[in-house]
Design brief:
By secondary structure, the chain is an alpha+beta fold. Strands 8-9-12-11-10-13 form a six-stranded antiparallel β-barrel. The chain has a three-stranded mixed β-sheet with strand order 3-4-5, covered by helices on one side. The chain is globular and about 60 Å long.
Length: about 240
């Protein structure tokens, strides 16, 4: 069952920042609690009140801090469960919309320094990859699902298949997922990789936002070996 799989996650093992509290608070620091209980509550919510209460608790857990407007690494682990909640055919509309809204928050909230990546990938981009993997099912949910896919598209991903140097630029062929980047967009090749500027030479023929063949022109880097993954540099630099 979904609730059992949520409970089975070792949430305590996911890095979570300890937050400083205002001077008037009885304690000086606070570690956000894990999201297991409110996630299970959202999964079983049947009334608007139950869904709203679960969301409020999730916004004060190790996935989100609503007042601070911050997102934490546990959001990436919670995202598949929220997608499953939204896709359940028996889910009430308000529960489905609550799950989609939370996923949208994961894409736009800023992480805390030192807790802004999972496996080297910016939190927002990691969530966007999970959202895109459910594209067909999200489109079937109507406008809310399509809006979430539109938000995820800004966190594009380009996987290099081959590249070759041409004077002062590099031409890279590969698979682009998400919206084609605007001309001159800064892109990173991982947390330790170079930052370059990209232009779309040949846009993908598939306009759905799913992975499709494309060609990018890169400036500011001498190489992009096969397997290099480019993402928006802005995503990796977003810090609370």
């Amino acid at each position: 069952m979904l609730t059992e799989r949520i409970a089975a996650v070792d949430w305590a093992a996911i890095p979570t920042p300890v937050l400083a509290l205002p001077a008037w608070a009885p304690e000086s620091t606070w570690r956000p609690p894990d999201p297991a209980a409110p996630l299970r509550a959202l999964a079983t919510a049947r009334t608007r009140f139950e869904a709203a209460e679960a969301v409020t608790r999730l916004e004060n857990s190790s996935v989100l801090h609503g007042h601070m407007g911050a997102v934490f690494p546990a959001a990436v682990a919670a995202a598949p469960f929220l997608l499953e909640i939204a896709e359940r055919p028996d889910a009430p509309r308000w529960t489905r919309e609550a799950a989609l809204d939370l996923l949208g928050e994961f894409l736009v909230r800023y992480p805390v320094a030192g807790y802004n990546r999972v496996g080297g990938t910016p939190l927002c981009c990691a969530v966007a990859d999970l959202v895109r993997a459910c594209a067909d099912r999200l489109r079937a949910l109507g406008a809310p699902g399509r809006e979430l896919l539109k938000e995820a598209a800004a966190h594009w991903r380009f996987a290099v298949a081959e590249s070759y140097a041409e004077r002062d630029r590099l031409i890279a062929f590969g698979r682009l997922a998400g919206a084609p980047p605007a001309a001159g967009t800064r892109a990173e090749a991982g947390p330790e990789g170079p930052v370059c500027e990209v232009w779309v030479e040949y846009p993908p023929q598939d306009a759905s936002g799913g992975p499709a063949d494309a060609c990018l022109r890169l400036a500011g880097t001498a190489e992009a070996p096969e397997g290099t993954v480019l993402r928006p540099a802005e995503c990796g630099e977003r810090l609370h």
